[in-house]
Amino acid sequence: MELKWPHGLAIHNGVSGEGNISALLADMIHLATSDEIPRLQAAIMSHFLFEYIHPFYDGNGRTGRYLLALYLNHDLTMPTVLSLSRTIAENKNAYYKAFVEAEAKLNCGELTLFVNTLLGFIREAQDELIGELEIMVDQLDKGETICEQLRQKHGLSAKAASILYGVIQEEMFDSTESMSLDDAARQIGLSKQSARTYVGEILDAGLVVQSGKRPLKIQTSESLKSILSTGVSED
Questions:
Q1: Domain of life here (predicted)?
Q2: What are phi and psi of 220, to 5 degrees?
Q3: Do the annotations mark residue 143 as ligand-binding?
């Protein structure tokens, strides 16, 4: 089985022979779970070994990156682990080059540069994730401020404002952009019957529109979308 560059040129021929493959896979698992090596480095080195073995006819890259994520998740957050796949995809040439350099004869199996390259990808993935989270936090702060301004402007109850804040978050982050009566009830910790009263407040204020009857669903009105874009007017 071959490991190839994105353009199709072979980088590496995998290990052959069922016995050899089984033995090296056992070594890989032992390496990944070793207590004698820091777990991040062990996970990365085991990733190299899996791709070196290349045990399957197809899917070795996806399987190897899945196993890498599985082992990294012991020490890293799930968002970091999930974002790493995107970072590797964005740096495919550097990723494959790290394998080539690690396998060079003059390198004599030294994996320091390979480990450093993957650690760099992890750092890049974390930096991108932090940047995205900071943007989301800013959006949440903006939504919370607008929600409070609308609560005061329309004389909304605290429960109605809480549901409105949930609707605003749906608009900002959820592709469905709608909230069911069940969602509204969970948002304020009350029954659906009680939640219906508070939903009525924001419907009457024209901040949301009904997008479904059975079950009841609401979503941001065009007026609220405009407010989220331009801010609350003072009139």
A1: Bacteria
A2: -60, 140
A3: no
Collapsed DSSP state (helix, strand, coil) of residue 37: coil
Query: What stretches of 73-178 show up as alpha helix (H) in DSSP?
Result: 78-90, 92-103, 112-154, 158-173
177-185 average pLDDT score: 90
CATH topology of domain 155-230: Arc Repressor Mutant, subunit A (1.10.10)
Q: Is 54 a catalytic residue?
A: yes
pLDDT at 178: 86
Range(s) for CATH 1.10.10.10 in the chain? 155-230
Question: Do 67 and 81 form a contact (C-beta atoms < 8 A)?
Answer: no
Express each pLDDT in 67-93 by its tens digit. Answer: 999 999 999 999 989 899 899 999 999
CATH architecture type of domain 18-132: Orthogonal Bundle (1.10)
196 assigned binding-site residue: no
Q: Give 97-106 pLDDT, tens digit per residue.
A: 999 898 888 8
Q: Tell me the pLDDT tens digit for each residue of 126-168.
A: 999 999 999 999 999 999 999 999 999 999 999 999 999 999 9
The answer on whether 127 is annotated among ligand-binding residues is no
Give the span between the Cα atoms of 64 and 14, in whole angstroms.
13
Q: What is the pTM of this model?
A: 0.74
Residue with structure tokens 């957050």? 77
User: Where do the CATH 1.10.3290.10 domains begin and end in the chain?
Assistant: 18-132
